[in-house]
Amino acid sequence: MAELRLSSECRGDSLIVAIGGELDIVTSRQLDEHLTGARRKHRRIVLDLSAVEFMDTSSLAVIVGHWKRLEAAGGTLVLAGARYRYTKTLWITGLADRLTMYDSVDEAVAAEQSADRHAGDEKRPDPGTLEGPAPSASAGRLLRTGDGHDQPRPRP
Prior knowledge:
Layout: E1 4-11, E2 14-23, H1 28-41, E3 44-55, H2 57-72, E4 76-80, H3 84-87, H4 89-92, E5 101-102, H5 105-119, E6 142-143, E7 151-152
Parallel strand pairs: 2-3, 3-4, 4-5
Antiparallel strand pairs: 1-2, 6-7
Helix pairs in contact: 1-2
């Protein structure tokens, strides 16, 4: 039987949802319920995928559904720590190019904090920083480094 581990913790204005184990058709409902509760209370969610051992398209449908709902409500959902070997469906489906992804949770949180600091600085924008309340869907084509300098995402 598939095993899924979910936990949440607040860091700044972000809710970190740590996911471990297998994300598949058996566990996707549990993930959906967890994210539904999280989305009701938080507008910034970071999914920590560093402990995911398997991911199928049913779990991707859940993630994309919550990503779209949060974006429509002015929030953000980003991914952190996705390891290609275990989450290759993100690349196979092209979602790795659409969803904002970070190498680590720390980078994702730092990028959100950087965006907040510069969101109100419209008089003197700094082109070397992340600006605005949230990256657009097309921002997934860049690797967010957390230092304000985005780099093209390497292809797997």
